[in-house]
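Lab notebook, bench 4. The sequencing result for the construct came back, and we need a structural model before the next group meeting so we can plan mutations. Quick request posted to the team channel:

Model the 3D structure of this chain.
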Amino acid sequence: MADLVVSAKEGLLCVPGDFYIDPWLPVERAVITHAHADHARAGHAHYLTAAPGAAVLKSRLGEISLEALPYGKKIVHNGVTISLHPAGHVLGSAQVRLEWHGEVWVVSGDYKLDPDGTCAPFEPVVCDAFITESTFGLPIYRWEAQQKIFDDIRHWWRRNAEEGRASVLFCYAFGKAQRLLNGIDSVVGPIICHGAVSELNRIYRESGVWLPPTLSVSDVSNKGDFSKALIIAPPAAAGSPWLRRFADYSDGFASGWMLLRGARRRRAVDRGFVLSDHADWPGLMRAIKATGATRVIVTHGHVDIMVRWLREIGLDASGFSTEYGTDEDDNVAMNEAVAFKESHA
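Done. Here's the predicted structure in token form:
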């Protein structure tokens, strides 16, 4: 039987269904796993996404022709049965289950197995073929319990406040910021969010996700006392005029890439907090095993290493070339990861 999904110049193509999953070039029909910019592009004629992520997708792409599908509900297009299942990555993230002539394929998008309070937890989906990410597909990537990271951030924030400094925490505006807010509520001081974060906070709250009270910069005076504040901002705000109003501050960055010292040095931040919305190496292995798939296709990340390992444990493994993970910050960190790997070869 011919492959149900192939890598085409536009993106991942479901051949019999004549639609694409997370395409990077404009197409007629696109199934979107989640609203991060490398997976959700503008210009498609029709979009299908999981219902919990519809509002985020609209906020990022504007007026689009969008069908929102509840998790687990099945629809049929050109004979292919499609359903979306939680990926545990960010609000509304989904794995795409495709069934055709009795064969089942799952396209994972991005995912993590560790549950958090801001999105539906990862749901293993039994399949014949599993298309998996490999963003952190090296054995060195092993995450500590998220509560320890939240505690570390809270202690850092409290110490800065005691020393009269604001705490600026850089993180991705969609997903990571809300996960942090959901996990580190504290009485240390006010929490101030960059505008890019505040808009997404609104959508999360309207979706029923609990977040602590936060302020925007417009809510406070430029001459206010920020010494006890925690400021949540996207990486692009680093070194910008927006930060000058906070005067003396200590800065940190929350990302899985902070496991690498080179990435922390490149960011030139005071603290790195290792917190990722992607699966670590053990998580990737557990997810693949849980699908029961005998065929695994690896995308964006450390494809060659993952493929070699999966073949060694007896799976039919190969890779797809994709344009996922092309965010500038990811490229910087990927270079750091390659340098680390080469220095420890």
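The longest strand covers residues 80-86.
Will bring this to the meeting.
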